[in-house]
Design brief:
The chain is an alpha/beta fold. It contains eleven helices and 14 strands. Helix 5 crosses helix 6 and helix 6 packs across helix 9. The protein is globular, with a radius of gyration of 22 Å. Keywords: ATP-binding, Cytoplasm, DNA damage, DNA repair, DNA replication, DNA-binding, Nucleotide-binding, SOS response. The RecF protein is involved in DNA metabolism; it is required for DNA replication and normal SOS inducibility. RecF binds preferentially to single-stranded, linear DNA. It also seems to bind ATP.
């Protein structure tokens, strides 16, 4: 898939931007703070309905503006052209498709974007929430019903947590219906996650091994969030007293996690910051490859500040792989990354939120 046109209004310093993008490599160059990353952020919003920048929700809107919007013409593998829109006023997102209102779930089901950026090492070094997001985004693009099931799970979890915070005694019958609901939904979620990770495993091995051969064989590990040898409903019942003391539910699908271990770096603490970045990049590329296998079409790839995040050899390896794949790639930098010289690309100069196409 690729974006033919992109229009951005009132997103950070991008007050009014309209771009015609190339189907392959697109490069945005300019000084730091010029607005390059905000272009990638706009594209990412169409696929995730959130920014990849942490704590960015309140900072997305341009100063003095009441509403931001992103409009795109998305061309899919069947050559179908789809017009997508995403707007935000206050705290509420509004999605549109072909000029008609639609749900966020339907919007993000159509547009797939993966991104490698300066904060990507958090996928490896950060908390489990980031890894669950990565995993569940992949599951969603295989099984669109996943999102609704996850929402139902969250509603049941909220009800049980409300009972805990209210100090409801552990032997109260009020817990049982919510625990039964949680257990059934968690089993389904867990099965979907396991199936996805099994499909991802080979791609992870190939992508990460190429980037970090010195670390030896990578091993994917998964924890579902509760003990493997016991039904979740029974565990929740047994843990009521403990959960009551801490005021929230300590086990379940919302506590799942996964990790990559290496033969010569069995703990993530053994990785340097550079190795964390390369591992995260390998995960992103593996997810993009699996998406292409399943859909016959690569997702859109965003690479933010590539030259400062990777050495030249790794830049060249990644760019060569993506150029060969035929994926649409959006790259930012203060100058043209060296590995892109000699490759066909479209370049834009970015200055104070304005985009100028360059030959």
């Amino acid at each position: 898939m690729r974006l033919d046109r992109l229009r951005i209004q009132a997103l950070r310093c991008l007050h009014e931007v309209e771009l015609a993008l190339a189907p392959g490599l697109n490069v945005f160059v300019g000084a730091n703070g010029a607005g390059k990353t905000s272009v990638l952020e706009a594209v990412f919003l169409l696929s995730h309905a959130r920014s990849f920048r942490s704590g960015a929700r309140d900072a997305l809107l341009a100063r003095g503006a009441a509403r931001l919007s992103v409009y795109a013409e998305l061309r899919q593998s069947s050559d179908r052209l789809l017009r997508l829109g995403l707007g935000r006023e206050g705290s509420r997102w509004e999605a549109r498709m072909e000029g008609e209102g639609t749900s966020l779930a339907d919007l993000i089901a159509e547009c797939a974007v993966t991104c490698f950026e300066p904060g990507s090492h958090a996928l490896i070094a950060g908390g489990a929430e980031e890894r669950r997001r990565f995993l569940d985004w992949g599951v969603f693009h295989v099984e669109h019903g996943f999102l609704e099931t996850w929402r139902r799970y969250q509603r049941a979890l909220k009800q049980r947590n409300s009972l805990l915070r209210a100090g409801t005694e552990p032997d109260s019958p009020l817990y049982a219906p919510w625990e039964t609901e949680l257990a059934g939904l968690a089993d389904w979620i867990d099965n979907q996650r396991r199936t996805y990770l099994e499909r991802l495993r080979t791609h992870l091995h190939d992508c990460v091994s190429v980037l970090l051969p010195e670390l030896g064989e990578p091993e994917l590990r998964y924890r579902r969030g509760w003990a493997e040898d016991q039904d979740l409903r029974e565990q929740l019942q047994a843990q009521r007293g403990r959960d009551l003391a801490r005021g929230h539910t300590g086990i379940g699908a919302h506590r799942a996690d996964w990790s990559l271990a290496f033969a010569y770096a069995p703990q993530r603490e053994h990785l340097s910051r550079g190795q964390e970045k390369l591992t995260a990049l390998g995960c992103m590329l593996a997810q993009a490859r699996l998406y292409a296998d399943q859909h016959g079409d690569w997702p859109i790839i965003c690479l933010d500040d590539l030259a400062s995040e990777l050495d030249e050899d790794h830049q060249a390896a990644v760019i060569a792989q993506l150029a060969e794949s035929g994926a649409q790639v959006l790259v930012t930098g203060t100058s043209l990354p060296e590995p892109l010289r000699g490759l066909p690309h479209r370049m834009f100069h970015v200055e104070q939120g304005r985009m100028t196409p360059l030959l």
